[in-house]
Amino acid sequence: QVQLVESGGGLVQPGGSLRLSCAASGFTLDYYAIGWFRQAPGKEREGVSCISSSDGSTYYADSVKGRFTISRDNTKNTMYLQMNSLKPDDTAVYYCNANRYVYNYWGQGIQVTVSS
Fold first, then answer.
1. Alpha-carbon separation of residue 43 from 27, 74, 90, 97 (angstroms)
2. Residue 54: what pLDDT?
3. Cα-flanking dihedrals φ and ψ of residue 15, to 5°?
4. How many beta carbons lie within 10 A of that of residue 106, not counting itself?
5. Buried-state track 29-42, b at ≥16 Cβ within 10 A, e below 16
6. What is the CA radius of gyration of the chain?
7. What secondary structure letter does DSSP report for 53?
8. Among 42, 98, 110, 111, which residue's beta carbon has the most beta carbons within 10 A?
9. Phi, psi of 47, deg, nearest 5
């Protein structure tokens, strides 16, 4: 069964850090382009960061550049999003994604709340 399962979300104070994990099963993650998206209440889902499957190049949304880091561990079939210097505007449901050709998989989403 193909699955992406996120973990590591929760409540954190402004300026704090969280690391999101996304474990893949049923397929081999290293053949896929991977990314993280988020959706805040009342807003469209937006891309946060991604890694190309072809050359490993990374992309970050301007709003998270310098604060978030995307990575993957092919030995664990898992991707990560390290989030530092979190701001209240980072509050959202975060989704991991893996895509390759016609295959496009999503995690179930995990809540990240940044609040004092």
1. 31, 32, 12, 19
2. 83
3. 90, -10
4. 14
5. beebebbbbbeeee
6. 13
7. T
8. 98
9. -75, 135
